[in-house]
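Researcher: Quick test of sequence recovery. Tokens follow.
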């Protein structure tokens, strides 16, 4: 407990799934959590849940896929905080278009949320992160790994996540004297995005024999953000029960 006491943490896509689980876990460890998301109602529910156990959380409603919105977010946050200890770039969407279904709108939307937002958040919060000697954790995907080429409808999604992995490596190297940057690559995690989807096709393909839970991801993010990982940067870490090995 209290591994993150006194730390200020920004989590994007924080109103559900992996983002929500991570926000709650960080708050339980003593961090003040700044939730960034588009759904005000769900965000308020997460803030209320955290407040009920004495945690600290604030909600910033923002669509971070637009540069103007990110700049406004930086202004709003910098009015109350002079440094940021952790930035968890978690927001994302899952596009499962077959090749013949892909169009310019799908490509632009996926890259805007899955990749552009990570670049913009990293760029505009960098000075606050450097001030804290902080840490960035980017959420990519097992699908973005070079070794993983399964899936007949992951053209756009997997490409956005591969871009996140490369960006994370470059950022880690170029800012190694100031901050740490690491990247997680979750596999199939049981979140709202997968509700009513048939997972039977994955039977026998996950070596550990189960689908992941949001807390499985949150625990890894907490470790990467903590002082326990103070000598780790540039790590690309699958959280997939071994699925990317198959």
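Model:
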């Amino acid at each position: 407990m209290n591994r993150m006491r006194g730390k200020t943490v920004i989590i994007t896509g924080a109103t559900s799934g992996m983002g929500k689980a991570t926000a709650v876990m960080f708050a339980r460890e003593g961090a003040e959590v700044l939730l960034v998301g588009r759904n005000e109602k769900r965000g308020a529910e997460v803030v209320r849940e955290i407040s009920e156990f004495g945690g600290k959380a604030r909600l910033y409603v923002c669509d971070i896929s637009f540069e103007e919105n990110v700049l406004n977010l930086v202004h709003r946050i910098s009015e109350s905080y002079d440094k940021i200890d952790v930035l968890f770039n978690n927001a994302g969407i899952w596009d499962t278009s077959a090749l013949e279904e892909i169009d310019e709108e799908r490509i632009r939307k996926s890259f805007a949320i899955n990749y552009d937002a990570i670049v913009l958040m990293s760029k505009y919060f960098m000075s606050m992160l450097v001030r804290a000697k902080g840490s960035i954790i980017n959420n990519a995907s097992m699908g973005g790994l070079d070794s993983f080429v399964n899936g007949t409808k992951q053209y756009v999604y997997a490409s956005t996540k591969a871009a996140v992995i490369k960006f994370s490596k470059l950022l880690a190297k170029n800012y190694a004297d100031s901050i740490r940057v690491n990247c997680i690559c979750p596999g199939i995690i049981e979140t709202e995005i997968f509700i009513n989807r048939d997972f039977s096709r994955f039977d026998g393909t996950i070596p550990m024999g189960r689908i992941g839970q949001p807390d499985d991801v949150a625990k890894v993010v907490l470790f990467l953000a903590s002082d326990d990982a103070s000598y780790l940067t540039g790590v690309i870490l699958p959280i997939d029960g071994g699925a990317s090995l198959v």
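The chain is about 40% helix and 15% strand.
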